[in-house]
Amino acid sequence: MSRVAFPxxxxxxxxxxxxxxxxxxxxxxxxxxxxxxxxxxMEFEPPLVGCIVSDRNYSFDLLEASGECVIAIPSVELADxxxxxxxxxxxxxxxxxxxxxxxxxxxxxxxxxxxxxxxNLECRVVDDSMVDRYGLFxxxxxxxxxxxxxxxxxxxxxxxxxxxxVAGKTITLESNAK
Length: 178
Hints:
The protein is an alpha+beta fold. It has one domain: Roll (Pnp Oxidase, Chain A), CATH 2.30.110.10. Helices cover 14% and strands 35% of the residues. The protein has 4 helices and 11 strands, in the order ββββαβααβββαβββ. The strands form 3 sheets. The protein has a 7-stranded antiparallel β-sheet. The protein has a two-stranded antiparallel ribbon with strand order 6-7. Strands 10-11 form a two-stranded antiparallel ribbon. Residues 13-164 form the Flavin reductase like domain.
């Protein structure tokens, strides 16, 4: 086996945790949406998601202040809009209007759903003890929505520096899980 050293600054692209999502928050002037890829499931019931948001992001203050957000899961067809949302700040522009995304009222939180996404998870912050040190918010999913018309959506995954991977073929193996 041959090996070469790999830059530590690029390790995150090797252990990418899941699909790139759009995280929405409610703001006083307007809602905001950001591309986000550093998240992980932490518990099944109630569903808990660990979500890292840098304090350099406009969404950080909105999430910290409201304690609520929506995790909207886009399919590959939205990749261009997702990347554009990740390359600018909601402090300067209305990303929903600029990138043609449709905010839809959620039922449990003030942050909007994203109509174009095949799944939307309404979330509340349930643990902020690691926010100051790591930017890690623990979110409880309090309501989940899917578009029943969308079958087998292909998600996008962040590999770093503008590189995205599209989810591929699904395989099913025997499992004892119920």
